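From the methods appendix. Each design record in this collection lists the tokenized structure first, followed by the designed amino acid sequence. Records were kept in a plain field format so they could be parsed without special tools. The example shown here is representative of the layout used throughout.

RECORD:
FOLD TOKENS (293 positions):
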């Protein structure tokens, strides 16, 4: 549901096109989705994104590496750290790499041995890094022992791609919106219990996004029928725009995190935000002021 790495990189590629020649390695399904928003000066380098179990991923990464080398880049920007990304950066040889590290500390429910290994490989392979706040830079230096001078702090980009689907001017409704993957670290269950405890008879809570983070809350969900709208599925772009255009408040009750594309979406639509003090959020969300992007 909602924005992810491809949306983030599309904005970065478009922005860089004003200054340099840009090649954009993008999966074929995301190219179909976002291609119309891509600056015509950006050269797409499409690939079929394999799952971890797909052995044909070896062949696909080898093909992609050759295509990237044929583009003759001066520098590579990466921002993911999975199995196939680790293979790809190895196949790219000694090309200089800058790595945007969204989460210096993995989410609570993503700290598997393999995930931590691939993160380490991606970080060690790079010669420069980007993080999204001063606090995250401190965490990164402490954890990975890198030279702070080689770490650029740049705020997470705004997700204004979705505003193209926004409906005509509407008044905000009395709804509290939780948006994104429903995982333990994002605290949808915390929000559910908090909303149930409040006397807000005219308000509705909307939880939109896939995930199993509410699997233990069936009794409470049934009790809140009529006040609660759960959309546990993929949310299409037009529906994303509708949700954020109408929301009275966007709630981010995160237990743990570094930054959030949901915050970038809320900023694009001018939504009021209620967030916990985790990761870079306190630097971007200031009480009674606009989100600082």
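DESIGN:
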């Amino acid at each position: 549901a909602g924005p992810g790495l491809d949306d983030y990189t599309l904005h970065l590629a478009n922005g860089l096109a004003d200054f340099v020649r840009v090649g954009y390695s993008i999966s074929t399904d995301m190219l179909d989705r976002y291609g119309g928003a891509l600056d015509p000066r950006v050269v797409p380098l499409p690939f079929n994104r394999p799952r971890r179990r797909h052995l044909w991923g070896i062949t696909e990464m080898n093909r992609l590496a050759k295509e990237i080398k044929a583009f003759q880049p001066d520098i590579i920007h990466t921002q993911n750290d999975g199995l196939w990304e680790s293979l790809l950066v190895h196949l790219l040889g000694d090309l200089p790499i800058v790595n945007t590290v969204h989460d210096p500390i993995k989410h609570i429910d993503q700290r598997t041995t393999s995930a931590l290994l691939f993160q380490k490989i991606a970080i060690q392979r790079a010669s420069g890094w980007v993080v999204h706040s001063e606090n995250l830079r401190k965490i990164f230096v402490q954890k990975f022992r890198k030279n702070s001078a080689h770490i650029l702090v740049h705020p997470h980009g705004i997700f204004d791609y979705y505003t193209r689907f926004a409906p005509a001017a509407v008044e905000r409704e009395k709804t509290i919106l939780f948006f994104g993957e429903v995982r333990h670290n994002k605290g949808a269950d915390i929000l559910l219990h908090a909303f149930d405890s409040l006397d807000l008879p005219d308000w509705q809570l909307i939880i939109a996004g896939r995930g199993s983070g509410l699997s233990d809350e069936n009794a409470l969900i049934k009790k809140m029928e009529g006040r609660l709208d759960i959309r546990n599925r993929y949310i299409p772009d037009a529906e994303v725009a509708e949700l954020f255009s109408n929301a009275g408040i966007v709630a981010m009750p995160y237990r743990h995190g570094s930054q959030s594309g949901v915050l970038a979406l809320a900023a694009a639509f001018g939504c009021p935000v209620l967030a916990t003090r985790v990761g870079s959020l306190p630097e971007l969300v200031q009480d009674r002021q606009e989100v600082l992007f």
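APPENDIX NOTE: The first strand starts at residue 23 and ends at 27.
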